[in-house]
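Quick question, first post here. What does this chain look like in 3D?
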Amino acid sequence: MTIKTTRRRLLGTTVAASTAFPLVSILSWPANAAEFSYKYANNSPVTHPLTVRTTEAAARVLEKTSGKVEIKVFPNNQLGSDTDMLSQLRSGALEFFTLSGLILSTLVPVASINGVGFAFKDYSQVWPTMDGALGTLVRGEIAKRGLYAFAKMYDNGYRQITSASKPVKTPEDLSGFKIRVPASPLWTSMFKAFGASPTTINFSEVYTALQTHVVDGQENPLSLIDTAKLYEVQKYVAITNHMWDGFWFLANKKAFEALPANLREIVEAEFNASAVAEREDLAKMNQTVETTLKGKGLQFVNTDAAAFRGTLKKAGFYEEWKGKFGAEAWGTLEKAVGSLS
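> Answer (accepted):
Ran it through. Tokens below.
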């Protein structure tokens, strides 16, 4: 996995990256200094805090390893859909990737447990849980699939429902509603419990699917609704906070372990530090993004979380997923957030 680079190749790729990414400063190193040249990809726009902070982390890694480790950043699905990039990560064609646990669950079933509907009341429960026992349990399962998950997750935020034709105010408004969901059994299960018609579409195709009315709506955090410009093709946003979602920073285990221990420590430390900074960024963004989106034409609709939670419970959603996740994982979740089922 070691790649020796010539000065011409290093400068060429650095300049190319800087053209697409004004956030990355060009650093000069002696010829042949980069002993390891790796790729990191995500599905977030260039302006999203995830991309901003991971780009900064890559620059710090280059500096702190004296140019030995070069990590090129490819945002916004440049290397393919989420499922494509997960396959690339597993094969070693891609060394690093940030991915929602709910989509990762197609490979690691328990990884979607953080997305159980209405599980986390607020962030005072989210971070102690995901930085603590439940996160450790999930990381252990990820490791069994040839991947390595860094200790700190990046925030994706609480998810809200947008729609084009009608506002969603009650669980009943979701009956027959054609909604885009990511490729995750938990998402599909939850919206079916509401009586909706969920359709799996990769995020790279969501804007077009909404624009052409393949689906009536979708659900994502407000920050992503803003940075991905989904407000251009949607009219309403229901504040449901129906699930919290975060990004695992994943490494191809073989590629990561090819780095000497001291370099591994630098890489993980810098991306973990950026994860904490990105959480703060998103918290600040959430304080202003509602006003921003209202200014761009989105109409906000308040909802009653208890009514939606009651519908899920009546439909047997919690009992179903308690059985699927197993006693240990479900018990770890409920220890942190209280009884769900």
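Residues 333 and 339 are 9 Å apart (CA to CA).
The first helix runs from residue 7 to 20.
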